[in-house]
Amino acid sequence: MSTKVYSFSSTNEVAQGLDKLLAHLSSEAIARSGRFTVAFSGGSLPATVAKYVKHNSTIDFSKWFVFWADERCVDHSDSESNYRLVKEELLDHVPIPAKQVFAIDPTLLSNSAAAAAEYQSQMVAVFDSVPVFDCILLGIGPDGHTCSLFPGHPQIEENDKWVVHIDDSPKPPPSRITLTLPVLNHARTVAFVATGAGKRGILREIIDDRNLALPASHVAPTNGSALWFVDHAAAQDLKINKPAEFKL
């Protein structure tokens, strides 16, 4: 596993870097397998990722297969829905076939365990064995969580299931489903996105100190790369893994 940190002067430049990364990874994956499999988390990430990507005419969106790294058990129209965020920022603007967009089943929102099992069944239909995503896009919380894998919660220990549920999330809404570490660590590329001075301390703990009490510290693709797209404000405390210039 290789870890690389790329720092940019602004969130806008982070978005430009992600545009170049996704265009490259998409082209590479489509040449290799005829498709590009990608998973999104929520928060501010979809807007940052999609800002330039949705206008990139070099990307063959018809070959994209879109999943969610985690999702809240809320209606697709709810403001808390990660599906809604990605739909509004990206899916409404690019020609990804509906059959290649894999969202949480809205009929199972009151039963997070069933929703997680059903989401795994959607993944089984696309991946023959443990999923090897071409790219998983992740954020981090101030507590070091990523996806809906939170410090001190048992979901971080799951080794068999691809998708698990949580009903006591310390961050509302409480019920969610999330990909597990085995899936994250089978990815070809995991791209973390973190911006703002508020992330500087937690970035140091994850990237430099590798504090294993923090779920994000466990994301280490076995045969892939962990890339960090951060701004200068978030990266200013890094001493060991100093940011490099972004080059493909």
From TrEMBL:
E.C. designation(s): 3.1.1.31
Domain Glucosamine/galactosamine-6-phosphate isomerase: 11-228
Transmembrane helix recorded as keyword: no
Species name: Coemansia thaxteri
Function: Hydrolysis of 6-phosphogluconolactone to 6-phosphogluconate.
Record InterPro entries: 6-phosphogluconolactonase_DevB, 6PGL, Glc/Gal-6P_isomerase, NagB/RpiA_transferase-like
Pathway: Carbohydrate degradation; pentose phosphate pathway; D-ribulose 5-phosphate from D-glucose 6-phosphate (oxidative stage): step 2/3
Reaction catalyzed: 6-phospho-D-glucono-1,5-lactone + H2O = 6-phospho-D-gluconate + H(+)
Similarity-based family: Belongs to the glucosamine/galactosamine-6-phosphate isomerase family. 6-phosphogluconolactonase subfamily.
Keywords assigned: Hydrolase
One function term, GO molecular function aspect: 6-phosphogluconolactonase activity
Pfam families named among the record's database cross-references: Glucosamine_iso
Gene Ontology biological process: carbohydrate metabolic process; pentose-phosphate shunt
The protein's name in its UniProt record: 6-phosphogluconolactonase
KW Phosphoprotein (keyword) present: no
